[in-house]
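Case 342 in the screening queue. Each case pairs one protein sequence with one candidate compound; here the compound is nicotinamide-adenine-dinucleotide. For every case the pipeline is the same: read the inputs, emit a complex structure as tokens, and attach any notable structural observations.

Predict complex for case 342.
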Amino acid sequence: MIQVAVNGYGTIGKRVADAVTAQPDMELVGVAKTSPNHEAETAVERGYPLYAAVADRRPLFDEAGIDVAGPVETLVEQADIVVDATPSGIGAENKSMYDAHDTPALYQGGEAADLVDASFNARANYAEAEAADHVRVVSCNTTGLSRLLAPLQEAYGVKKARVTLVRRGGDPGQTGRGPIDDILPDPVTLPSHHGPDVNTIFPDVNIDTLGLKVPATLMHTHSVNIQLQETPDADAVRDRLADEDRLFLIPPEYDIDGAGKLKEFAMDRGRPRADIWENCIWRESISIEDDDLYLFQAIHQESDVVPENVDAIRAVLGTADRAESMARTDEALGVGFQRTHD
Ligand code: NAD
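Case 342 output:
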């Protein structure tokens, strides 16, 4: 069994901890937190050993009556691998601790690409994480774009991608984030950081990205235009994308017109935290004009990187190849929306 530690138990960390627990070949050694908030209570309720991420803050747990198993260093020492899901920039500060314990580490998209040996997306470049000590699972948006580009690149070749990202202002729990009533070009200069980030996965893909921020919390939406080297018809592209388990082609008859209904659908299907691990592509938006492919996709920022973290664990430790790992992860989590009839 692979022994996994999670350092940083917030939006991403708590989801990764649950996903690790669901895997037949993994065991969660524990999670490290900075504060005894409701998420700490949930960790205790789920039976996850809780470690103090910051020594000075340990008394806060004692005052709240929450048992702490030890300092984060003990957690890291016991683990075969640590998933760092701390806020942007803290992962870089933690790197020397992971090195001191000789424990390989996964970081999240908020860390800089040059912190790590490899940036990772399971579908696109699984093998590049093999035997690496420091790997970054790219951001939610880059994960969504990489999953889409990989099959298109393989099947048709990508001449040029142009993507406009309409980004949620914050996650539902981020009460301090904005905008509240505005639409912001963000950044106003081109490109947004997403295009260069996609190039950490696909160094040769020609991609321009533009970003806007809107007062929404549910999901991001991408308006995608990809110029292909070959020119398939739209039905062929739909069939090709439908073969990918982590791409959900929203059937027109589902009457899902936006992120709100997508989240409602996820809740109806009993998804934990209404998570949507898949890219959600509106099927009828997939269009071909000359050699240009167009589509709209929605990305659930809080959860699409979760299966990728699980796969990155196996990739780094060399316990499964890409196809085995993705299949095992998807089966254990229940990735892929099944139609109830055909
Ligand atoms: P978050 O703020 O929800 O969670 C981070 C957790 O780490 C919090 O519980 C915080 O208390 C804790 N923490 C703070 N300092 C710590 C320390 N020194 N040691 C251990 N824990 C500490 O943040 P998040 O949204 O989960 O983001 C984590 C990382 O994931 C970032 O790199 C972010 O860019 C990336 N990411 C976030 C999203 C998203 O939409 N939320 C999507 C993809 C990737």
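Case 342 observations:
- Residues 7-13, 32, 34-35, 53-54, 85-88, 90, 108-111, 139-140, 171, 301-302, 305 surround nicotinamide-adenine-dinucleotide (CB under 6 Å).
- Residues 140-304 form a domain with the Dihydrodipicolinate Reductase; domain 2 fold (CATH 3.30.360.10).
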